[in-house]
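Please fill in the sequence for the structure shown.

STRUCTURE ENCODING:
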């Protein structure tokens, strides 16, 4: 096996803490927990008290000084702090805030210069392997329809700026329809899936997104419809919201773990 890779985790919310504990338990051969970043160091130590070994606690940018792989699980507002440092240092960078990557595609060019790799996880979505394959041919259209419980959308910039209320709904309400790029800006904590889909397919300006606040659902639902010269397909996933953060599905952290596992696994399944 190649040398063991150290993993730095930016943010210790629902996703970051799950990854930290899994690495500490040795669930992914070839990877070890190297460092974490958190705003409150004392709280981070309390959250990690059950680990077999306490990792170094540093800044978001500091993760890249000692770790080979940087996993970003922080609020989108601080994306640049961790992403810029990881790419400049030539690290493997795995972002959870994929929507924050769209206006920073200069990072891709810089990664080509430094030897860094930016690996976008599937996250709470489905079928990025099929989307990537179809994009090798001609794709006519890609549409993502997202339905979420209203509380999971409250506070989104698009709702606040346009004075759109999702309180007291008795039926589904369409709160956004537009491009994946615009959706990622208006709902930075909700639709990283749209950004991931667009990057795997035909880009954020050609990928169409609908967002529904639906009081009749208790799961985050995403339906992809693709029309291409190689295939026509529709895929739906229903994700159970995280107990810690209803804006994030439980499967998101598991997807990040699966992405990490691919880095060292002797067998990888899927495109």
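FILLED IN BY: designer on duty
SEQUENCE:
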């Amino acid at each position: 096996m190649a040398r063991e890779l150290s993993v730095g985790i930016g943010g210790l919310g629902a996703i970051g803490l799950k990854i930290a504990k899994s690495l500490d338990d040795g669930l992914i051969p070839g990877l070890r927990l190297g460092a974490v970043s958190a705003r409150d160091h004392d709280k981070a130590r309390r959250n990690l008290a059950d680990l077999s070994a306490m990792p170094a606690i540093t800044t978001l940018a500091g993760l890249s000084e000692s770790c080979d792989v940087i996993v970003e699980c922080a609020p989108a507002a601080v994306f640049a702090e961790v992403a810029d440092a990881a790419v400049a240092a030539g690290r493997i960078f795995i972002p959870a805030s994929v929507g924050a990557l769209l206006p920073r595609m200069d990072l891709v060019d810089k990664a080509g210069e430094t030897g860094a790799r930016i690996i976008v996880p599937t996250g709470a979505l489905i079928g990025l392997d099929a989307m990537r394959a179809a994009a090798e041919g001609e794709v006519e259209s890609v549409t993502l329809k997202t339905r979420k419980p209203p509380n999971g959308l409250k506070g989104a910039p698009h709702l606040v700026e346009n004075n759109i209320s999702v309180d007291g709904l008795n039926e589904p309400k369409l709160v956004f329809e537009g491009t994946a790029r615009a959706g990622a800006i208006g709902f930075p904590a909700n639709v990283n899936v749209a950004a991931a889909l667009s990057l795997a397919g035909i880009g954020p300006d050609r990928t169409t997104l609908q967002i529904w606040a639906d009081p009749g659902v208790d799961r985050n639902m995403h339906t992809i419809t693709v029309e291409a010269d190689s295939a026509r397909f529709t895929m739906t996933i229903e994700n159970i919201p995280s107990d810690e953060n209803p804006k994030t599905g439980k499967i998101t952290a598991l997807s990040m773990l699966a992405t990490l596992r691919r880095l060292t696994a002797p067998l990888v399944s899927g495109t």
